[in-house]
Structures
1.
Amino acid sequence: MPDEKTNNDEKTPDSKNNNGMVKFEVYGQEMIEKKVKLSGNSGRVYLPPDWVDHHVKIIRID
């Protein structure tokens, strides 16, 4: 149909970010920013002992 026009330039804000980063929105109780340290063949992050038995979310930012 020749009279119909589609707007292919319309993008969501996240799709304009071409460096592979995405935006997360997380609700929680506390936040700690730490660097992951090498531990054998993997990485390790130490957290406070009162966080034991709680659920956490880890997001790589760089």
Note: The chain has a mean pLDDT of 83.
2.
Amino acid sequence: MKSQLKSGVILSYITIAVQMVVQLIYTPLMINLLGQSEYGLYTLVASVVSYLSLLSFGATGAYLRFYMRFRENGDNQKIGQLNGMFMTVFLIMSAVALVSGCILAQYTPQIFGDKLTSGEHEKAKILMHILVFNIALTFPSSVFDSIVSAHEQFVFQRVLNLLSVIFNPLICLPLLFMGYGSVSVVLITLSISVLKLTINALYCVKKLKVKFNFKKFDFSLLREVAVFSVFLFLNMLIDQINWSVDKYILGRVSGTNEVAVYGVSATMNAVFLQFSTAISSVFAPRVNKIVSENKHSMLDELTSLFTRVGRIQLMVLGLAASGFVIFGRYFITEIYVTQEYENSYYAALFLILPSIIPLIQNVGIEIQRAVNKHKFRSLVYLAMAFINIIVSIPLGIRFGSVGTAFGTGLSLVVANGIIMNIYYSRVIGIDILSFWKSISGIMKGLVIPVLFGVIIMNYIVIDSVMEFCLWISAYIVIYAVSVIFLGANKEEKNMLLKIMKKRSNI
């Protein structure tokens, strides 16, 4: 399993790297081929349809907890009942999402407002129908994903994700060049979802020999899962509000062009978020195992894992965040898109920088779920999400995409940076002071590369993409050396030396 864990993390970062390259090439071409207005429409419709995913009520997050409980007891019959129950419930949810989405697609003028043209409303209706079918497929697919994750088959899972990242643009781009527009993009997305669902199902049934018991429906277990999932659902609702509502607000008050500007910043933020979840997601089974064993040293083990993963995440996120602060404006306006999207840089800053604290503490979410103390976080985030909406509407009217992003960033700082750290310390039992003391040691390694980057962007004239890439490469090297020698601890340096020795022996 350790090899699966390490390979899973490595493959996650390979996927992120590939995704960054894809976004670098694909998104600007997509904006250019579709036009700012249609790209904004595509982004707006996708964000609205994504709300249908809330019909899962957060139940996928509960699967791992109950699976680990039954596995520890060696109760295969209960696991079969759990699998059958989840699949039944999610198929029902899929049908509800499909019907609800098709009904909503008939009322695009009421949903999107009068800032869209009649032609945009007609295209929005087509896009909604296709994306609704795609969302419906994600429900049964998420069950298979949860099963694969519970079996810690990270290599298969990450390879499948990597292939979907690669093939989506490879198929879409020729169609866009032929003039098929955003409709072709969502049709390809739907086709890939069908293929992923099929492969996941075959892998679970044929390779993992997973059993689904549909005969004995355990309603008491369903009630227990439902109670546990209520607050996971609130987390999903909050995430949808924080990461999607800004586009909807802008669509209502500004139109599709401003949504397109925000869409670029949201893409930057999405890539940044993946740097953290790539690591934390593979540690979910380990967290649940520590909790299920319930040893006297449980809190010490959780604090150690919380800190070790947080330090690794900060090393990676520090590179991404500092690099974007220094090079992001030039990248967006001169390479990625055009000067029209300058506000995308500032909006992205308000989304990315406040996210660093919760991202280096992502394992804490798995810990909360494992010890069944995730309710408070959900309530805090729910309150902050509604504050985000209240603040973002006037800011969106006055400052457009930058204003709505600021509202989102402000809510993240209050909820994650202050309230949740107090909760981790006083309720969960994590030694949060030890965590921040350990984290602060890494910050010394950021000083030299940041000064180097500031000098580059203020005193050197960059005349080409190649020259820009060379300076980026130099920054990465200096960052890596500085963080390793000034920020990394002895354990992390030894781990790096072992990796280097293994590579040299290949």
Note: The chain has a mean pLDDT of 82.
3.
Amino acid sequence: MPDVIGGNAGRAYEQMGSELDMTFKDASGQGRPVDDPSAWKICNSQPGPNQQITDFPVIFEVVEVSESCEGATPK
């Protein structure tokens, strides 16, 4: 898994989307739908950076670009 933490979720989707089953989840705990990944940034991923992908879907925990990952609740 590449290290995409802090990166734009839309770019990650474009780079890996065709070859990877992925899900985006709101890391703020508010349960907001992630309809447009380009408006969100990645706070965490499962599996983590530089780990082998063994389970699908890969989960990206995201917050809106204007928000901080610091307030994100780990899942």
Note: The mean pLDDT is 91.
4.
Amino acid sequence: MSQTVYALNLFNVSNKDEYLAYSRRSAKEVKAHGGRVVALGKFRQAAAGDIAPRDVLILVEWDSREAFDSYCNDPELADLHPHRVNGTDGYIWHLFDKLEDLRPILKGKS
């Protein structure tokens, strides 16, 4: 059974033209590959933690890891992904499994 995956994207825009070339097409392609943008955000302040702040947050919900991989590896999008790479810096792209609650993580922990 496929499980929903969240992709956390944190980054700075380093080249607006490059990133605009990516973002103009990416929303449609994300949707076509089973993704949905859940949240967009602009950095406000660091409340806690040791990660260097990034200007932009995008949280994408994917139908499955396979859906995410299909977006990343679709040969029809080979010309799209370089715009993301060339238009950003400090990119963090982490995948998280969807949980209904924290029991699977806390199970067996004391």
Note: The CA atoms of residues 23 and 84 lie 8 Å apart.
